[in-house]
Design brief:
By secondary structure, the chain is mainly beta. The chain contains three helices and 14 strands.
Length: 230
């Protein structure tokens, strides 16, 4: 099941709090939830809770596992039991139809669909990770939401968006180095596109890239076990 992640943060006015919404999903019936690391990180004395579709609210008691670079966090909900989990599967292919279920801009349980567009390798701080983009729309509040296939299996997690602007050819050449992979398989290492962190130059907006964490990273973080029926 997909949940609403809500963090209460102290507001500028003393005694008041601001609510920040994000998304997560159950991966074990005992109340284990997957979401983005940036959803649970960098909050000052937060109160973090998860709400199910039927309105039941569970406090997040602890983080079971995190991967800041992969932007993943596995949380334990207090008092949760018999929650329906989603199964994670790896190996989704470019062109495959997928669906995003999340809470963009407070629009709870918004379903969008599209395809898995491409895999690429993101490099930063001497590390590299494989990610993918999708044509399924999402926005602020969607962080941590599942991307599922036509059978309801999780193939990835919403992570971030990147706006692409028009720029001169020299700058574009510095930023992107393409290497084609005609096999159609999930790429790894140098077989995928390398994307640097060099900032874009300002210009006319062209498109938005919807960037996702592959389910393989979730499985790796939880020890490689799918969650269906557990």
């Amino acid at each position: 099941s997909v949940v609403v992640m809500a963090a209460l943060e102290p507001a500028a006015e003393p005694g008041r709090y601001e609510v920040t919404l994000a998304t997560g999903f159950v991966i074990h019936a005992s109340g284990v939830v997957a979401t983005n690391f940036h959803v649970v990180d960098a909050l000052e004395s937060p109160v973090l809770v998860a709400m199910t579709a039927d309105g039941v609210v569970y406090p997040v008691t602890k983080l079971l596992a995190v991967s800041p670079f992969a932007d993943l966090a596995i949380c334990q909900l207090d008092g949760a039991e018999a929650l329906p989990p989603l199964a994670c599967v790896s190996g989704a292919r470019p062109g495959q139809r997928i669906h995003a279920l999340s809470h963009p801009d407070g629009g709870l349980y918004t379903l969008t669909d599209g395809i898995l567009s491409r895999y690429f390798v993101h490099r930063a701080d001497g590390q590299a990770k494989t990610m993918f983009t999708t044509t399924a729309d999402f926005a602020v509040g969607s962080s941590g939401g599942p991307l599922v296939d036509d059978r309801g299996n999780v193939v990835g997690m919403v992570s971030s968006t990147l706006a692409v602007y028009a720029q001169d050819e020299e700058a574009a050449g510095r930023r992107l180095h393409e290497r084609l992979d005609d096999s159609g398989d999930e790429p790894a290492g140098d077989e995928a596109t390398a994307v640097s962190d060099e900032p874009l130059l300002p210009g006319d907006f062209q498109m938005g890239l919807n960037m996702c964490v592959p389910a393989a990273d979730i499985l790796r973080l939880i020890g490689g076990e799918a969650s269906a029926g557990q």
